[in-house]
């Protein structure tokens, strides 16, 4: 049986995979597991719930609130806010847990439910598995006056905005920024935050109608942002995704600055200001080899994790480090956030431009992006990969041939019959030739 929770909560087609009945049952399971400590302390658990603006979020959030309140949990409904804002509010309110209804960068028909534990941190696998186990049990049924209350959290956005602005020590006055809010959860608060920080703004993707979230806008569709930056003659562009836990950027010439380059910029900034703990950055195995090379050149060590911001966060907490992230733009600052925060990241990029007096292109130039070729080999048995010595041997030979400025990564998908073949090299043709050879070998060995 497949595990209910994926790498970032439960996600699926709203109304089919994610139904009102399912959402209520999941919430009742969460009330049992995540409200346990409060009940031991003799008090009623408190939860923060929030959502992105996709239309299905209305009925799913209502079902989650009903499931929690019927289980004796008091609910603070923060409405439409970014995922990192929900995480912040759980910690700020000292709530017992939080629920975010969002499918992040997925299209509007999808939706999802993710949880935060006390302190606004993501749940470990073991706790998610326990919630899944108890979903089939009898829920905690509160009676009469013991039922939870559902209240609107009136100042949720203001609290979060004040927090964001407290993380930068310079005014952004003089910077012209194009913001792409992906018709998502940041459509209201991101322009307010950047404007209050002093920036001059052009805003796109800020007219959510419940159906257009992520549609040809946002961090997964940067074309409109690139065009808007050039048309406005702006200094940079910032793109969020639907729930605003990601940030990608565009420089004044319209060139994309991805999560690896953003991490390189911010790691150097923090180190120069004595704020990069142990002079170490956390990134996933999919980060570009150029990031590692740049960090080595500047005396910054790297810890590598599996793909997924939850694994980045686990490493940050384990080693008590301050900065980590993913190529996709999930950037985590542990001194200011417990999860990836696209608004926080964008503000930090802009602030570093002001501090340094450099353009975004100049800052991003600290890192050379190595050609990276990724081929998905579909329809193959991912379990057979680890036991095939011929594939392992050829991958090792190719990596040795590429030398220190090349890399091979074979990564099975955790949810599909797909093996991802990723090769990096100083020359694109070498990376492509090696990736195609390995993909053909895997198909021949495991796909028959």
From TrEMBL:
Its EC number is 5.4.2.10. The active site is at residue 104. InterPro entries: A-D-PHexomutase_a/b/a-I, A-D-PHexomutase_a/b/a-I/II/III, A-D-PHexomutase_a/b/a-II, A-D-PHexomutase_a/b/a-III, A-D-PHexomutase_C_sf, A-D-PHexomutase_CS, Alpha-D-phosphohexomutase_SF, GlmM_bact. It catalyses: alpha-D-glucosamine 1-phosphate = D-glucosamine 6-phosphate. It holds the Pfam family PGM_PMM_III. The modification Phosphoserine is found at residue 104. Residues 3-135, 160-254, 258-368 form the Alpha-D-phosphohexomutase alpha/beta/alpha domain. Activated by phosphorylation. GO terms for molecular function: magnesium ion binding; phosphoglucosamine mutase activity; phosphomannomutase activity. Binds 1 Mg(2+) ion per subunit. GO terms for biological process: carbohydrate metabolic process; peptidoglycan biosynthetic process; UDP-N-acetylglucosamine biosynthetic process. One of its GO terms (cellular component) is cytosol. Keywords: Isomerase, Magnesium, Metal-binding, Phosphoprotein. Catalyzes the conversion of glucosamine-6-phosphate to glucosamine-1-phosphate. Belongs to the phosphohexose mutase family. This is Phosphoglucosamine mutase. It comes from Candidatus Agrococcus pullicola.
């Amino acid at each position: 049986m497949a595990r209910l929770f994926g790498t970032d909560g439960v996600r699926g087609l709203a109304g089919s995979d994610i139904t009102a009945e399912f959402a209520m049952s999941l919430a009742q399971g969460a009330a049992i597991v995540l409200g346990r400590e409060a009940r031991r302390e003799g008090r009623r658990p408190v939860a923060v719930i929030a959502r992105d603006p996709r239309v299905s979020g209305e009925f799913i959030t209502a079902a989650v609130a009903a499931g929690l309140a019927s289980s004796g949990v008091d609910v603070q409904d923060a409405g439409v806010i970014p995922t990192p804002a929900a995480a912040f509010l759980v910690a700020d309110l000292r709530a017992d847990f939080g629920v975010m209804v969002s499918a992040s960068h997925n299209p509007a028909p999808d939706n999802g439910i993710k949880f935060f534990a006390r302190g606004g941190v993501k749940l470990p696998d073991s706790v998610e598995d326990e919630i899944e186990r108890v979903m089939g049990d009898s829920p905690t049924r509160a009676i009469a006056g013991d039922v939870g209350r559902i209240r609107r959290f009136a100042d949720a956005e203001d609290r979060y905005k004040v927090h964001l602005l407290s993380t930068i020590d310079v005014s952004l006055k003089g910077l012209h920024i194009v913001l792409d809010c992906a018709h998502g959860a940041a459509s209201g608060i991101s322009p307010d935050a950047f404007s209050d920080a002093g920036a001059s703004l052009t805003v796109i993707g800020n007219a959510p109608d419940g159906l257009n979230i992520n549609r040809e806008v946002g961090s997964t569709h940067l074309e409109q942002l690139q065009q808007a930056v050039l048309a406005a003659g702006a200094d940079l562009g910032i793109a969020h995704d639907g729930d605003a836990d990601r940030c990608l950027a565009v420089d004044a010439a319209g060139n994309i600055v991805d999560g690896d380059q953003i991490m390189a910029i911010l790691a150097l900034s923090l180190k120069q200001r004595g704020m990069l703990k142990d002079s170490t950055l956390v990134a996933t195995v999919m980060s570009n080899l150029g990031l590692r090379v740049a960090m080595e050149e500047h005396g910054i060590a790297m810890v590598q994790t599996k793909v997924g911001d939850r694994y980045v966060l686990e490493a940050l907490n384990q080693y008590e480090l301050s900065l980590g992230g993913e190529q996709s733009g999930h950037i985590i600052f542990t001194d200011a956030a417990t999860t990836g925060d696209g608004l926080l990241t964008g503000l930090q990029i802009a602030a570093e431009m002001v501090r340094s007096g450099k353009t975004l292109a100049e800052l991003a130039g600290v890192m050379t992006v190595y050609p990276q070729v990724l081929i998905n080999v579909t329809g193959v048995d991912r379990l057979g990969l680890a036991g095939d010595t011929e594939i392992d041997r050829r991958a090792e030979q190719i990596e040795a041939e590429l030398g220190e400025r090349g890399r091979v990564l074979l990564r099975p998908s955790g949810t599909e019959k797909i093996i991802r073949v990723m090769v990096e090299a100083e020359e694109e043709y070498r990376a492509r030739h090696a990736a195609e050879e390995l993909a053909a070998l895997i198909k021949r060995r495991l796909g028959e």
